[in-house]
Amino acid sequence: MSQHAGSPEHESLSAPGLSTLLRERGAATWAAATSHPMVAEIGAGTLPHETFRFYFEQNIQYLHCYVQGIALAIAAAPDRASQATLARFLIQITDVEIPANLTFLTRLGGSPDRLPAQLPTTRGYAGHLLAAAGSGSLPVALAALLPCQWSYGEIGQRLAAGGAPPDPVYADWIAMFADDGYDDLVRASTGLLDSCAADADQRAAEAAFDAATGYELAFWEMAYTRGASDGGA
């Protein structure tokens, strides 16, 4: 029997996944985060190095909490396939992004041994991730974790399409998120959320995703203002 455009079978096949629904409901905040002035200046290679160094000083500390959040999500994963996807996610952070962040910080004149205190946005974002990931619900954990990974993939792809900036620090940072391997990981992670959507408390997932997207925007603003948006320079 053929499936008609109005049939329930067709609708179920074409219906957007939970990841798409979550992103669409927070589209304005998502757009503000991924097109933030700091992102634009990274793409142009015009961001002051001092500002990028400030970003890495906070982001390194955030990423350590992000690792803990992914580990909690792995603990909530129901099967080996889910665990394998999340293990790839974890390795990307521990073996690629944290070492790269440490290298970028050093290239910009900073020191991993002299990191400043976490600012309120960094602490708040980390606390949100750990609370959501520790809820025991894999969909809620993923909803909190995905805005970071997913938005950086989008940023990397868009900035790379505009051509590499002349400053190698910015060109190298963009390249880290623009390659096909990163895009494949994003698809795997969003696909995992979609596959476990039937087990989701959708309101809790929406709240987790919305809060994380808001924190992404706040984190860019915090770094761009070198802490002024958090109440101190």
Give a nutshell description of this structure.
InterPro entries: Haem_Oase-like_multi-hlx (IPR016084), Thiaminase-2/PQQC (IPR004305), Thiamine_Salvage_TenA (IPR050967). By secondary structure, this protein is mainly alpha-helical.
Write the layout of secondary structure elements.
Blueprint: H1 8-14, H2 18-25, H3 27-34, H4 37-44, H5 49-76, H6 80-107, H7 120-133, H8 138-161, H9 168-178, H10 180-195, H11 202-224
Helix pairs in contact: 3-11, 5-6, 5-7, 5-8, 5-11, 6-10, 7-8, 7-11, 8-9, 8-10, 8-11
Structural account:
This protein is mainly α and 233 residues long. The protein has a single domain, classed as Up-down Bundle (Heme Oxygenase, Chain A), CATH 1.20.910. 75% of the residues lie in helices and 0% in strands. It is built from eleven helices and no strands. The chain has helices at 8-14, 18-25, 27-34, 37-44, 49-76, 80-107, 120-133, 138-161, 168-178, 180-195, 202-224. Helix 5 (49-76) runs parallel beside helix 7, helix 7 (120-133) packs across helix 8 (138-161) and helix 8 packs across helix 11 (202-224). It is globular, with a radius of gyration of 18 Å. It starts with 7 loop residues before the first helix and ends in a 9-residue tail after the last helix.
Shape-level CATH architecture: Up-down Bundle
CATH superfamily: Heme oxygenase-like
Count every helix, treating DSSP H or I runs of 4 or more residues as helices: 11
CATH fold-level topology: Heme Oxygenase, Chain A
Q: Which value, in Å, is the CA radius of gyration?
A: 18 Å
Strand proportion, as a percent range, falls in under 5%
Order of helices and strands: HHHHHHHHHHH
Spans where pLDDT lies below 50 across 5 or more residues: 1-12
State the CATH class: Mainly Alpha
What coarse outline follows from CA principal-axis ratios?
Answer: globular
Q: What is the average of the pLDDT values?
A: 93
Main sheet overview: none
Domain Thiaminase-2/PQQC: 29-225
Pathway: Cofactor biosynthesis; thiamine diphosphate biosynthesis
Protein name: Thiaminase-2/PQQC domain-containing protein
Organism: Trebonia kvetii
